[in-house]
Specification:
The complex is a heterodimer of chains A (326) and B (251).
Chain A lengths: L1 E5 L2 E2 L2 E2 L1 H11 L4 E8 L2 H11 L5 E8 L8 H15 L3 E5 L2 H13 L5 E4 L1 E4 L2 E6 L4 E7 L5 E5 L19 E4 L12 E6 L14 E5 L6 H14 L2 E4 L1 H5 L20 E5 L5 H7 L4 E6 L12 E4 L2 H11 L5
Helix pairs in contact in A: 3-4, 5-8
Chain B lengths: L1 E5 L2 E3 L21 E3 L1 H15 L5 E8 L3 H11 L3 E6 L6 H15 L3 E5 L10 H9 L3 E11 L4 E8 L2 E8 L2 E5 L11 H7 L4 E4 L12 E7 L8 E3 L2 H10 L5
Parallel strand pairs in B: 1-4, 1-6, 4-5, 5-11, 6-10, 7-10
Antiparallel strand pairs in B: 2-3, 7-8, 8-9
Helix pairs in contact in B: 2-5, 3-4
Classes of the chains: A alpha/beta (326), B alpha/beta (251).
GO cellular component, one term (chain B): mitochondrial matrix
Protein name (chain B): Electron transfer flavoprotein subunit beta
GO biological process, one term (chain B): fatty acid beta-oxidation using acyl-CoA dehydrogenase
Chain lengths: 326, 251
């Protein structure tokens, strides 16, 4: 078989979740083609980086057009459809990022196949495990349809080892996608804007340490306690749905079933009761610390280390006593 | 202008689910069922658009066994004008749902289709995108704000994405899927529950709509996730720092 990986890139490099998608593709025992799209020099930079990023990648396909400058689902799904028509792939994989979630089911509909989203384990080339009911059950599903089998993978379940890029690995060929038959009516949807992200903090999805706060922080001002502690540890900031709904922090910091899924080495939960929707987003963290004034809070059932106490006393003490990040 | 809203009957969000011993699924017998919370948000948004005078009719659609009619009645009690039930008693995967929905769109000719971004049972997050793909309509998924411009026949959608909020503008007709922060759904009042009993619900089967339910997916098994081993309750911040440093080695 041959697998097509849809890769996202930014600033001339492949994004971390897409590296996880490549890693997932390597377990399918097939040759891998990578599809990159966009326009300008950063696209070609990313393509050349991608061509030597993994020995299993045999080909990098580049779709260079203003139509792909922004991550709109309409032209992107058409592109996946077009590239599949000439490539005849057995599998098409993307990360389960907001981009992958938006584009891949639409592409699957155009190809008249059922996609399998948010895969956490690949058992064999047709059998996959995905969480259901907010991770309270795991479903093993077999794909019995025709090619391609379309997957999105949960990147935290396919962690890419650090320094895995082997500079000596052979370079894959880079070729341009023929867009002469591409006829997407781009006026149907228009990209207006995107809020800019805080670049100083590590990305929540890939951070080694995540410091999270819940409604018990009471207001946005108090939430700075969480932000300062994260800064000291070099970690990312997370929040519960309740904290986001109450306006303490922006929506992109939400960890949970419908927010971000994280699996850092250390997850510290302050004033978080542990609703199943939140646990769904962080239960795969290596070490979980919970600080809560309610000794019966369900968060303590998943925590490796629990501390029953007032977070307004505990956080300042931690801030003072924890070592500065290395 | 007409709005079609999809509503799904799922295990209530507050129920702690149990996996069946034979691993064929989760226990749903004698378990409280409700409208999927994201679908409530979708319906609420449609109702608000109608109440602001921008739409004339809201039609709620549910697919599955007979009990889906209860979910439709809830939707009618919230304020939907009428319901459509597509009866099917076996597993329905998003591709089939999208194919059925496409037929309903051809019959009803709505300007807007609104769905929840995902159902809290299978957590698929696929159906809205697939309907949009099949119809070749633009899509605004994971919406946290929807502004309709009837004159220009466009809808502007704020979308919750990984690194913040993205805004797109879509020509009508379009598909929107709703995220949590779009609105706060209303409760059905008793008078409206009474009124809902006389609102019409049309019944179809997939055959009536000429949709063949072909399945390219097979559930092999459903299992419990691995349990985390029990942790310890510590007595002080000093002890916590010591554990993180010397036992867990994470700082």
């Amino acid at each position: 078989g041959s697998t097509l990986v849809i890769a996202e890139h930014e600033g001339g490099v492949i994004k971390a979740p897409s590296l996880s998608a490549i890693l997932a593709a390597t377990s399918l025992d097939s040759s891998i083609s990578l599809l990159l799209a966009g326009s300008g020099s950063s696209l070609h930079q990313a393509a050349s980086q991608a061509s030597s990023s993994h020995p299993s990648i045999s080909q990098v396909l580049v779709a260079d057009s203003d139509k792909f400058k922004n991550p709109l689902a309409e032209p992107w799904a058409k592109l996946v459809h077009l590239v599949h028509q000439s490539g005849g792939y057995s599998h098409i994989i993307a990360a389960s990022s907001s981009f992958g979630k938006n584009v891949m089911p639409r592409a699957a509909a155009l190809l008249n196949v059922s996609p399998i989203t948010d895969v956490t384990r690949i058992s064999d080339s047709n059998t996959f495990v995905r969480p259901i009911y907010a991770g309270n059950a795991l479903c093993t599903v077999r794909y019995t349809g025709s090619s391609p089998c379309i997957l999105t993978i949960r990147s935290t379940s396919f962690p890419v080892p650090k320094n895995s890029v082997d500079s000596k690995s052979s370079e894959a060929s880079i070729s341009e996608v023929d867009l002469s038959t591409f006829d997407e009516d781009i006026d149907k949807s228009r990209y207006i804007s995107q809020t800019s992200q805080d670049d100083e903090r590590p990305d929540l999805g890939n951070a080694r340490i995540v410091i999270s706060g819940g409604r018990a922080l009471k207001n946005a001002e108090n939430f700075k306690l969480i932000e300062n502690l994260a800064k000291k540890l070099g970690g990312a900031v997370g929040a519960t749905r309740a904290a986001v709904d109450a306006g303490f922090v922006a929506n992109d910091l939400q960890v949970g079933q419908t927010g971000k899924i994280v699996a850092p080495e250390l997850y510290m939960a302050f004033g978080i009761s542990g609703a199943i929707q939140h646990l769904a987003g962080m239960r795969d963290s290596k070490v979980i610390v919970a600080v809560n004034s309610d000794a019966d809070a369900p968060i303590f059932q998943v925590a490796d280390y629990g501390l029953v106490g007032d977070l307004f006393e505990v956080i300042p003490e931690l801030q003072e006593k924890l070592p500065e990040k290395k | 202008m007409k709005i079609l809203v999809a509503i799904k009957r799922v295990v209530d969000y507050a129920v702690k689910i149990r996996v069946k011993p034979d691993k064929t699924g989760v226990v749903t017998q004698n378990v409280k069922m409700s409208m999927n919370p994201f679908c409530e948000i979708a319906l609420e948004e449609a109702l608000r658009i109608r109440e602001s005078g921008l739409a004339s009719e809201v039609v709620a659609v549910s697919m599955g066994p007979t009990q889906c009619i209860d979910t439709l009645r809830t939707g009618l009690a919230m304020g939907a004008d009428r319901g459509i039930h597509v009866e099917f008693n076996d597993a329905l995967y998003p591709l089939s749902v999208a194919n059925i929905f496409k037929k309903l769109v051809e019959i009803e000719k709505p300007s807007l289709v609104i769905l929840g971004k995902q159902a809290i049972d299978d957590d698929c997050n696929q159906t809205g995108q697939m309907i949009a793909g099949l119809l070749n309509w633009p899509q605004g998924t994971f919406a946290s704000k929807v502004v309709l411009d009837k004159e220009k026949q466009v809808v502007t959608v704020d979308r919750e994405v990984d690194d913040g909020t993205e805004t797109v503008c879509l020509n009508l007709p379009a598909v929107i899927t709703t995220d949590l922060r779009l609105n706060q759904p209303r409760y059905a009042t008793l008078p409206n529950i009474m009124k809902a009993k006389s609102k019409p619900i049309k019944n179809f089967t997939p055959e009536d709509l000429n949709v063949e339910i072909k399945s390219d997916l097979e559930i092999v098994e459903v299992t419990e996730p691995p349990k985390r081993k029990a942790g310890v309750i510590l007595s002080s911040v000093d002890e916590l720092i010591d554990k993180l440093k010397n036992e867990a080695n994470v700082i």
